Amino acid sequence: MPRLLLMTRCLLVCLLAASAGAADELHPGGAATGSAGPEALQATAPGLDLMLGLDAELGRALFEKLWVPAPTATRASDGLGPLFNARACVNCHPGNGRGHLPEGGQGFGAVLKLSQPGADAPIPHPVLGSQVQDRAATGLRPEGHMALRFERVSVRLEDGTEVALRRPVAEITPAPSDPVTLALRVAPPLVGLGLIEAIPEAAIRSGADPEDRDGDGISGRAANVSSRALGQEALGRFGWKAEMATIADQSAQAFSHDLGLSTPLYPDPAGDCPTEACRAMPHGEDAGLRDGREVSGAALDLVALYLSSRSVPARRDPTAAEVLRGEQVFHEIGCAACHRPGFETGAEAARPDLAGQTIWPYSDFLLHDMGPGLADARPGVDAAPGEWRTPPLWGIGLTRAATGRESYLHDGRAETLLDAVLWHGGEARAARDRVTALPKADRAALIRFLESL
Ligand code: HEC
Ligand code: HEC
């Protein structure tokens, strides 16, 4: 975008941001804003109805529950697998925070998604399915294990600073006999999901500019996906490639692919498992119990309620001089073109606690072409291999406090916020180049601002 246009746009946005910085933005989740620490990610949002709060606690128990393979005597917790990646949701989403790459024997929360080469939407592999499961019930072999190596890339900033970046390259051992496309994904933090769901579709779609009519070099495309929970086509809002429309859709897919548990939305008790050997294993379904599934529709709703009613962390030091300077830089160099600061949730949202809130997620929830450096070979349901959904930035400054490590971007490659920004390419190339040209103090202010979110 021409510099003048950028400055005019910034003047407007910055004025908005500056006035907001003083008031609203202190409460990024509106009435659902909680404490300023990582415990906010797990805490119940203030304002949630008391009865719903009790149900949300049941949802929490299901999110943290350790499942076991069938059969067991009690039947209440069985049905895990036969192929699975983890025994509980919380294993990959520790403290509702971000997952990490498995390195040096520690860290967890990453999966390998699969597709057949050359397809323009994901097509399951005939033997391995949609995802590599690295664990299995007794009597069955896991599909394989993830092996990672890192390619190193060095970036020189204009002030002479060298930054060492890494790009993970994943393989499966043993290697499958026929060709397969692998895609490494870390678990995103689960922040403000109910509020994101409560943003009217039209508000998100109105930001899309797929043909780049305004000529600012940034397009932004809404993902259209089919929602099993809604029973219709809907805007994709969740996941790195905006592949899921609702929290329930994403959770049901997780039960199926990550834990091997059936729900009314993914009714196959074998989960993501195409082979005969796997399909012949015992399962945890009981006619007449739990809608006949391993996890009932009611239980799935409780998990979705739990995730939709967590508080959004309050900002830390939002009015410190360096943070305010960083916020100004963020707008001036064009970050806000995709990381859109604010939204209003719908007045008619199904849950009164989520309705009519001014929120500050720092995302437009649209897909952007982020260039070849971030692309992998697997397309999304409605996303090219190089297209990613702008991730919300609220709570991002609590990453290390929440989980002890930092792993940003879809495959966890970035170990610092600066690394994450330096990987930006494609539509974000210009903004990224402005970061490399920033004076040191402004770059530090930009990072400090991100840390305050
Ligand atoms: C083996 C690790 C793993 C387990 C177990 C797991 N997840 Fe996830 N989760 C992920 C990954 C990876 C993603 C990102 C997927 C993508 O975008 O392609 C994700 C994404 C999500 C999202 C979308 C968040 C967003 O902001 O876009 C939700 C919601 C979610 N998981 C809920 C659950 C629930 C509920 C369970 C348990 C039923 C669960 N997860 C179990 C790894 C896991
Ligand atoms: C063209 C749109 C666009 C612009 C402009 C943009 N970003 Fe991003 N940003 C994205 C997308 C898309 C991702 C996710 C990419 C991925 O995971 O591969 C992302 C990821 C990030 C992340 C990591 C988030 C996470 O959860 O891992 C940070 C931090 C970030 N951006 C900050 C910035 C800053 C600071 C700027 C300005 C210099 C900026 N972005 C400009 C689209 C954009």
Task: Describe the protein in words.
The strands form 6 sheets. A two-stranded antiparallel ribbon has the order 1-3. It has a two-stranded antiparallel sheet with strand order 2-6. The relative contact order is 0.18. A hairpin with a 4-residue loop joins β7 (224-227) and β8. The protein has helices at residues 3-22, 50-64, 89-92, 193-197, 201-205, 247-257, 276-279, 297-308, 321-332, 399-403, 417-422, 429-436, 440-452; strands at 83-84, 110-115, 135-136, 145-156, 162-173, 181-186, 224-227, 232-235, 343-344, 358-359, 367-369, 387-389. With 453 residues, it is α+β, with helices and mostly antiparallel strands. Mean pLDDT is 92; it is low at 1-22. The protein has one domain. The radius of gyration is 22 Å and the shape is globular. The protein has 13 helices and 12 strands. Bound molecules: heme C (2 copies). One heme C binds at residues 63, 85-86, 89, 91-93, 99, 109, 111, 185-188, 190, 193, 238-240, 247, 250-251, 254-255, 258-259, 303, 307. One heme C binds next to α11, α12 and α13.
Topology overview:
Blueprint: H1 3-22, H2 50-64, E1 83-84, H3 89-92, E2 110-115, E3 135-136, E4 145-156, E5 162-173, E6 181-186, H4 193-197, H5 201-205, E7 224-227, E8 232-235, H6 247-257, H7 276-279, H8 297-308, H9 321-332, E9 343-344, E10 358-359, E11 367-369, E12 387-389, H10 399-403, H11 417-422, H12 429-436, H13 440-452
Antiparallel strand pairs: 1-3, 2-6, 4-5, 7-8, 9-10, 11-12
Helix pairs in contact: 1-9, 2-8, 6-8, 9-13
Bound molecules: heme C (2 copies).
Residues 218, 240, 330, 333-335, 337-339, 368, 370, 374, 388, 390-391, 396, 408-410, 417, 420-421, 424, 427-428, 431-432, 435, 446, 450 line the site of one heme C.
